[in-house]
Amino acid sequence: MKLKNVGLVGAMLLSGAALSMCTPKAADNGWQLVWEETFDSTDVNPEVWSRIDRGNVDWNNYMTKADTCYEMRDGNLVLKGIAAYEGDGDSVPYLTGGVYTKDKVAFGNGRMEVCAKLQGAKGAWPAIWMLPDPKRPDASWPHGGEIDIMERLSHDSIAYQTVHSYYTYELGHESNPPHGSTGAINPDDYNVYAVEIYPDSLSFYINDKHTFTYPRIETDLPEQFPFDGDFYLLIDMQLGGNWVGEVDPAQLPVEMLIDWVRFYKRKE
């Protein structure tokens, strides 16, 4: 993991030199900032981020690495969902942008916070989430687990926060314990989405308001809590799919603006 100078970061925050659309929520609650990304350069740091390849499932079947879906603007990473245009050499109706830290930066126990503004559009499905580091022996889905820090559908004024695992998905135990919840967002402004990862639980927050906690429980069933290893972070603008439904191309383009990402450890 690439660490930045925590003392310098703190001084900048106190002096007001580091301007931000969101107030960090963990700074005075027993957490120590150990890593951050502020998107203040002309491009994302290639040592940390990669553009996401296209796949064949709902969330990534329109993904592109083309510059048309990426922009650095006013200290934000802007990820776009657009209608495909004639002559772009692609066969899909839409194009979306996304980045991840896969094979570059991994995160373990601690608190992940992301400040983001989400434009709404029918069929828009932006997400901030985590998947197991490929180096883990249980990295295949769903065995290694999935941590959904934020998913928003279309023009919703709520965001979904969910965990998935072999226990919840293959065995179907979604309510013992409950594996997700929702929280209110300001749909026209920036919001801070967070998860705290502990050896025995995951706790989720929106604008520092607790939404739910997913605990490790005593059970004879396998893989109920595969969340005590390293994960990488994904941030992506998605369009369409079985969950969010059809896209209205008249409401495109749609943007997802990421102001910053911060990762904290508990102060000793």
Largest sheet, in brief, is: 9 strands, antiparallel
Structural class: mainly beta
Order of helices and strands: HEEEEEEEEEEHEEEEEE
Rounded radius of gyration (Å): 18 Å
- Straight-line distance between termini: 19 Å
Number of strands: 16
- Number of DSSP helical runs: 2
Work out the helicity level. under 10%
Q: Average the pLDDT over all residues and give the rounded result.
A: 91
β-strand percent reads 35-45%
Uncertain residue ranges: 1-19
Outline: globular
Concise structural overview:
This protein has helices spanning 6-15, 166-169, and strands spanning 31-37, 50-51, 70-73, 76-83, 94-96, 98-100, 110-118, 127-132, 146-151, 158-164, 180-184, 190-198, 201-206, 209-215, 231-236, 254-266. It has 268 residues and is mainly beta. Strands 1, 3, 4, 5, 7, 12, 13, 14 and 16 form a nine-stranded antiparallel sheet that branches.
